[in-house]
Write a structure and sequence with these properties.
The protein is mainly alpha-helical. The strands form two sheets. Strands 1-2 form a two-stranded antiparallel sheet. The protein has a two-stranded antiparallel sheet with strand order 3-4. A hairpin with a 2-residue loop joins strand 3 and strand 4. Helix 2 crosses helix 10. The radius of gyration is 21 Å and the shape is globular.
């Protein structure tokens, strides 16, 4: 089949294209997710190799549970960054397993919502998670991360500005595939700039092996329970701090599935159903976290590639997953990524964190939240003030003791719970979720363009 035919005709069976073109499409999907996926471990201190391994394995698990019908790739979730930083602010290796435990529990929380969807239907469940709740939570996630981005940029502003300019230029003036991979191009451009300025020490790259195992047992959650030094207070705090973030990421998931449905022209919300896709996403996140990888989420960048190529066969996505797994067994490849300058990461994250907050604003605007109603104003106000105010208070959290255990409630956890409870008990709910057609959730933390924003066009 000619390239022109590929551009003009939706393809659901990759066998029509032949092995060479299918391989190229699989690599394209891998590179689309790559920049965002490896950025999360660079920001948090998690392993790049482990991240790539479980991005691939998580995607395959998701496809298995969703009956191999949904062409979605699962990469690293940005939404949980606030949780990692709350538990391990400087990427401390001894603290990261606690954060990963909290994320694993958050992943299992997806199964609760999936069960509710299966039992009661999406329409009844979604009224408890309307945009007036999820929008301000997302805004707070981005704003709480802003200080980290500025500190990273401050290590070398020239390198950071190069990354920012490339990302902005690709998003505004980019065409085709360039518009889909702004993070990856920003990283490469800034990385090369830093290299030309002599700012990178390539010694770790020279010392790294070509082949190695991508999992370090000492960085897994399992190591906490075998080390003999388990901090139960920190373990509980990690769960309380991180699990509420799942309310936002589950809404992101629904937005992404809606976007993929719109792109492909099939209603995946009904078949295989949100209960299956949520279960796949949640289990992939839980398993990845237990082994020391970031939380997973369905990726908008790959939905953008679907729009660009019009090849909708999920096999192509699974091929990208196999490539990610293959790269995870190359420590030298991971070392090239890990020596990236802090300023490069800072420049990318400066744009990214701002866009997360902007997504929250868009979520509120596009779903037409009525702020003439006092209930909506109160809910949004308390979420924002509690989430941001507590985070920047002297203690940085609400701390109290239960017996011998000290528990900390982060600002985001407090704001999320207060918002959800208030929305449940205050009268005059006005949000309706319909699953007959892709719904206007407006939630997508990714930077891809086109139909990957989770909004019905």
């Amino acid at each position: 089949m000619s390239d022109k035919a590929i551009r003009n005709q939706a393809i659901y069976n990759a066998k029509e294209l032949g092995a060479p073109k299918v391989t190229i499409l699989g690599l394209q999907h891998m590179f689309a997710m790559f920049g965002s996926t490896v950025l999360v471990p660079l920001l948090t201190g998690l392993s790049v190799s482990t991240t790539l391994l479980f991005a691939g394995l998580g995607t395959l698990l998701f496809h298995l549970i969703s009956k191999r019908k949904v062409p979605a790739f699962l990469g690293s979730s940005f939404a949980f960054l606030a949780g990692y930083f709350a538990i391990a602010p400087n990427g401390e290796k001894e603290l990261l397993p606690y954060a990963c435990f909290g994320v694993a529990v958050a992943g299992l929380f997806y199964l609760v919502l999936a069960g509710l969807f299966k039992a009661f239907g999406a329409n009844k469940v979604m009224k408890y998670f309307p945009p007036v709740v999820t929008g301000p939570i997302i805004i707070a996630i981005g704003l709480n991360l802003s200080k980290t981005a500025i500190n990273s940029c401050s290590t070398h502003w020239i390198v950071a500005i190069v990354a920012i300019l490339i990302v902005v230029a690709c998003n505004i003036w980019g065409r085709g595939f360039v518009k889909i991979i702004p993070i990856l191009l920003g990283v490469i451009g800034s990385y090369l700039t830093a290299m030309c300025m002599g700012l990178i020490d390539f010694t770790p790259v020279k010392e790294a092996a070509w082949v190695g195992l991508p999992i370090d047992y000492n960085r897994t959650v399992f190591s906490l329970f075998t080390s003999g030094n388990l901090d139960s207070s920190l373990l509980i705090t990690a769960v309380i701090t991180i699990v509420p973030i799942a309310f936002a990421t589950m809404m992101e998931h629904i937005g992404d599935i809606s976007a993929i449905s719109s792109t492909v022209g099939k209603n995946f919300i009904k078949d295989p159903g949100l209960h299956r896709t949520l279960t796949g996403d949640g289990l992939a996140t839980a398993v990845a976290s237990l082994f020391g990888a970031p939380a997973n989420t369905t990726y908008g960048e790959n939905t953008g590639v679907l729009t660009l190529t019009k090849v909708y066969d999920p096999f192509v996505i699974r091929l990208a997953a196999y490539f990610a797994i293959l790269f995870s067994f190359c420590p030298k490849f991971a070392a090239v990524i890990e020596v990236m300058p802090t300023a490069t990461v800072g420049g990318i994250s400066l744009v990214l964190y701002g866009m997360i907050s902007a997504v929250g604003i868009r979520n509120v605007v596009e779903t037409q939240v009525d702020f003439s109603k006092s209930r909506n104003v109160i809910i949004a106000a308390l979420i924002l003030v509690l989430s941001i105010g507590i985070n920047y208070s002297d203690a940085g959290a609400l701390i109290f003791a239960v017996g011998s255990v000290t528990i900390s409630f982060s600002g985001l956890a407090t704001g999320s719970l207060v918002g959800i409870i208030l929305n449940a008990i205050l009268p005059d709910k006005d949000y309706k979720f319909e699953d007959d057609t892709p719904n206007k959730t407006g939630v997508d933390f990714e930077m891809a363009q086109g139909k990957s924003i989770g909004v019905e066009e």
